[in-house]
Design a protein that fits this description.
Number of helices: 14
Strand order of the largest sheet: 1-2
Shape: flat
Structural class: mainly alpha
Largest sheet: 2 strands, antiparallel
Distance between the termini: 74 Å
Order of helices and strands: HHEEHHHHHHHHHHHH
Helix content: over 70%
Length: 342
């Protein structure tokens, strides 16, 4: 073996280092002027911890706010629903078990409120979504001032509930209301919209329809603009007109969006509160003199803040929560079925 090969095979030690080489060159990374290995490993550990912990630190404020203002009240409401609690004596709580739920499910007012919630939800949701789908279909084509029309459609959603309900209350007034005035020209007698069963529910539903139609129309419009234009071109080449394109191309592609709006509208109808409360005036919390348009939200408000029975009001709140859970499960099953069918 030559000297050069021996030198390559046996590196020089610290004593054999060549003259002029920096001190500690033969000792590698542990010489003077080079940080020890522990510093680099510490930095790498801090870097790994930073990469793992930073995402949780960024989303922590949401969970803190959610826990303080949503989760804790929800659990506290569940605790109240199992006790006899009065608004005037919050410190005196008596264990009641499921008695509040038994009283609730045996009350005719609860079933009346549930029926009213369902009927108002159907009356307000079906025309609302159909009108929103039609408006979105119109705006999907090129129109002059399309941006202005979109802003106009979103204006009712930005309007205050109190202001909108006040205007509709004047429109549905028994004496001098514009709706009865128009019915007079159609040969129909005046309707007492506040006192009649179906009339009051139609009046409340019209407020909901007016406020939310434009909002849902913009959701449909955004989904329509995401549909590939090749599908419409292929349908046009096959001789399909606009109605056939809408029926066989637009609606099938909008099924997930339509399902989403149906679920959201159902949740909103279950929690309906402001419109019937303000529409009824003095008897708003009762849903009219005969409870003809009292929803679950109004019934909960009446039991908790007017009568002062917080235990029963909490039971109503949890009943509404269970109804929304059923709606969420139905939504999940329908979404899964739509994905498998496609």
């Amino acid at each position: 073996m030559t000297r050069s090969q021996e030198a390559l095979a046996h590196p020089a030690s610290s004593a054999e280092a060549a003259p002029g080489s920096p001190p500690g060159a033969a000792r590698g990374a542990h010489g003077r002027g080079t940080p020890p290995a522990s510093t680099g490993s510490r930095r790498s550990r801090l870097y790994r911890w930073d990469m793992k912990a930073s995402p949780y630190a960024f989303i922590a404020p949401f969970f803190v706010v959610f826990g303080a203002f949503s989760l804790v009240p929800l659990l506290y409401t569940a605790w109240y629903s199992l006790h006899d609690v009065q608004l005037s004596a919050l410190d005196h709580q008596t264990w009641a078990g499921l008695e509040n739920y038994r009283n609730l499910f045996s009350s005719e007012f609860f079933w009346n409120a549930l029926e009213n919630t369902f009927s108002i939800g159907v009356i307000s949701t079906v025309p609302q979504l159909l009108a929103a789908l039609w408006l979105a279909h119109l705006l999907n084509y090129r129109l002059r001032g399309s941006t202005v029309w979109r802003v106009v459609m979103l204006t009712p959603y930005a309007t205050s509930v109190a202001a909108a309900t006040l205007v509709f209350t004047l429109l549905y007034s028994w004496d001098g209301g514009m709706v009865n005035w128009l019915l007079h020209f159609a040969g129909v007698g005046p309707v007492n919209w506040r006192e009649s069963d179906w009339g009051s529910q139609v009046a409340v539903s019209s407020i909901v329809i007016w406020r939310w139609t434009g909002y849902n129309a913009l959701i449909y419009l955004a989904a329509m603009q995401a549909i590939p234009s090749d599908l419409y071109e292929s349908a046009a080449l096959d001789g399909a007109g606009r109605w056939q394109q809408f029926r066989h191309v637009t609606v099938p592609m909008l099924r997930p969006t339509i399902l989403f709006t149906v679920i959201v509208s159902t949740i909103g109808a279950t929690q309906l509160f402001g419109e019937p409360l303000l529409f009824g005036g003095v008897s708003g919390s009762k849903g009219g003199s005969e409870h003809q348009y009292q929803t679950l939200g109004l019934y909960m408000y009446d039991q908790g803040w007017i009568i002062g029975n917080l235990g029963k009001a909490s039971a109503i709140a949890w009943s509404m929560f269970l109804i929304l859970l059923v709606v969420a499960v139905v939504n999940m099953l329908l979404s899964r079925r739509l994905r498998t069918s496609r």
